[in-house]
Design goal:
Length: 122
């Protein structure tokens, strides 16, 4: 069954597309809405931030990769490689990465910040 569907990709940019229904009967364009469409990589699934205990005791392995020798379970941080977080000491990260990384006082707070970051809210 094909019908016409209006999709607003960005504010003011509207396209009329044929509405396709797959074998499950679900319209595959159901997720396209003005609030989650556009070019932001966060909204396109391009960022995969995650929470972890604060890592410390950084040193480099023979290949030059950062290794953490300690974890502090009382403080949490958020890591997003797509934002340029290269692991390693927070002091060596960009301001953008440092502000996202934290630290946060609880695992719950860090997971919330990671989730908001992936949604493009922070």
């Amino acid at each position: 069954m094909a019908s016409r569907s209006v999709v607003e990709w960005r504010p003011g940019q509207v396209e009329v597309l044929p509405r396709l229904v797959d074998s499950t009967g679900i319209d595959p364009t159901w997720w396209l809405t003005p609030s989650n469409s556009g070019d932001d990589p966060h909204l396109l699934g391009g960022h995969h931030a995650y929470a972890r205990p604060v890592h410390g005791g950084w040193k480099k392995d023979p290949k030059g990769h950062w290794l953490s020798t300690t974890e502090d379970d009382s403080r949490w941080e958020v890591v997003c490689e797509e934002c340029g977080d290269t692991d390693g000491p927070v002091e060596l990260q960009t301001e953008k990465v440092r502000s996202l990384r934290g630290p946060y006082p609880t695992k719950h707070r860090a997971e919330h910040e990671a989730k908001m970051h992936c949604k493009g809210k922070i």
